[in-house]
Design brief:
globular; 8-stranded mixed beta sheet; single chain; alpha+beta; Aminopeptidase
Length: 182
């Protein structure tokens, strides 16, 4: 699914380009992913996992582009992919009122309002599609992420004990949140 590109003014006054990643962005997206997975322990994939390949990244982008139920937004700043987010719409009659969200940002761009701006775009896309409930999960200890999600109106609804195995061998809870849109 294609997101209509737009320039967004961030809270520090800087401009960010929000757009759909294209197959020709695979190398830049791969660089982004490989960077963010080493900057935080709160993503599903981390340094212990095998590095994704350029072909795999290109295929992932192509699949999102052709899917009627997924939309990605990349944030471009300073010639880099600064952030990426995705909404995945449910497609069955009994759950098409729901969608799930995911987001990641390069550490050097934290605190500039990119996450808030991206979530605003994802929420608008969900409402346009008739979605009445958004869902996400985060790893216990991700206080920056939790603060963003709560600011956007998400509420916790459940906890999965030992949901994430950390690099150091410890286990962390996975916290589930939802946002009613009606």
């Amino acid at each position: 699914m294609i997101y209509e590109a737009k320039t967004v003014t961030l809270k520090d006054g800087s401009a960010a380009l929000f757009r759909t990643p294209m197959p020709e962005d695979a190398a830049a997206m791969l660089d982004f992913f490989n960077t963010v997975r080493t900057e935080t322990e709160f993503l599903l994939s981390g340094p212990m996992d095998p590095e994704p390949t350029l072909d795999g990244e290109r295929t992932w982008i192509e699949n999102a582009l052709t899917s009627p139920d997924k939309m990605m937004i990349a944030c471009e700043m300073d010639g880099l992919i600064a952030g990426n987010c995705q909404i995945a719409f449910k497609s069955h009659a009994r759950n098409r009122h729901r969608a799930s969200l995911a987001i990641a940002l390069r550490q050097k761009y934290w605190g500039r309002g990119i996450g808030t701006a991206m979530f605003t775009e994802l929420i608008a896309a969900a409402k346009a599609r008739g979605v009445t409930q958004l869902e996400l999960d985060y790893v216990e200890g991700n206080d920056r992420g939790r603060a963003l999600y709560e600011k956007m109106g998400f509420r916790p609804w459940g906890v999965l004990p030992d949901g994430i195995h950390q690099n150091d061998g410890t286990m962390r809870r996975l916290i589930y949140m939802y946002l009613p849109l009606d």
